[in-house]
Amino acid sequence: MPDFHALPIQPQAIQFDSERLTLTPEGPTLTRRMSDLAGLFLDEAARSAAAANENPVVYTVTSSPVPEADRELPQSITTIMPGNTSGELWMTKGHQHPNHQGEIYLALSGTGGLLMFDGEQTSWIEMRPGTIGYIPPGWAHRSVNTGDEPYAFLAVYPGGAGHDYGWVLEHGMGKRAFRGPDGATLLRPYAEQPGT
Ligand SMILES: [Fe+2]
């Protein structure tokens, strides 16, 4: 056994329930409501009004018991509800890994998009069940529900990668995803008002 600073956890099986979209045993679960997404949608007034009224759940993140510790490889299931705010599709906050490391997302159900931004270039991967989206080190990443049912994906990431949400507030994500008139997804420049 190598000499680790902190002892790793024991080998274990974690059960994924594809109907309920849960992990067993389960670690911490995070619920993000509209009130948690200040400053992220283009139409901040509409987001703020929704937060003040029904304050819907936009997405949840259920983690396995594997801790976010150096050398461990935690997993989580993120489920994004279908919906849009002034046409902008519901999405995760998005983050950068301060300790730049890669990550994989595996789409499980529904349809979505994996938006990535390295500060200059934007990348968009269509996510369908079975698609593995690879996030290279140094690319901020956000997931978007592009369909009419919940979009769920498995994330596997280095436990020491960290989550920097402020990076996205400062730098944006390069593009935003909107629901087009025919139901298709439209990617627009980050600051562009729809209809202009
Ligand atoms: Fe990440």
UniProtKB/TrEMBL annotation:
Tell me which EC number(s) this protein carries: 5.3.1.9
> Does the UniProt entry include the keyword Isomerase?
yes
Q: In which pathway does it act?
A: Carbohydrate degradation; glycolysis; D-glyceraldehyde 3-phosphate and glycerone phosphate from D-glucose: step 2/4
User: What SUPFAM superfamilies would the database entry show?
Assistant: RmlC-like cupins
Give the reaction(s) catalysed: alpha-D-glucose 6-phosphate = beta-D-fructose 6-phosphate
- Identify its protein family: Belongs to the archaeal-type GPI family.
Q: Could you name the Gene Ontology cellular component terms for this entry?
A: cytoplasm
CDD domains listed in its UniProt record: cupin_PGI
Q: Using the record's annotation, list all stretches that form the Glucose-6-phosphate isomerase prokaryote domain.
A: 32-173
Q: What is the lineage of its organism?
A: Bacteria, Bacillati, Actinomycetota, Actinomycetes, Micrococcales
The question of whether Metal-binding is a record keyword is answered with yes
Q: What molecular function terms (GO) are annotated for this protein?
A: glucose-6-phosphate isomerase activity; metal ion binding
The top EC class is isomerase
Xref: PANTHER family = CUPIN TYPE-2 DOMAIN-CONTAINING PROTEIN (PTHR35848:SF6), OXALATE-BINDING PROTEIN (PTHR35848)
Q: What is this protein called?
A: glucose-6-phosphate isomerase
Coiled-coil residues are none
One of the GO BP terms on file: gluconeogenesis
Q: Which domain of life is it from?
A: Bacteria
Q: Which UniProt keywords apply?
A: Gluconeogenesis, Glycolysis, Isomerase, Metal-binding
| Signal peptide boundaries | none
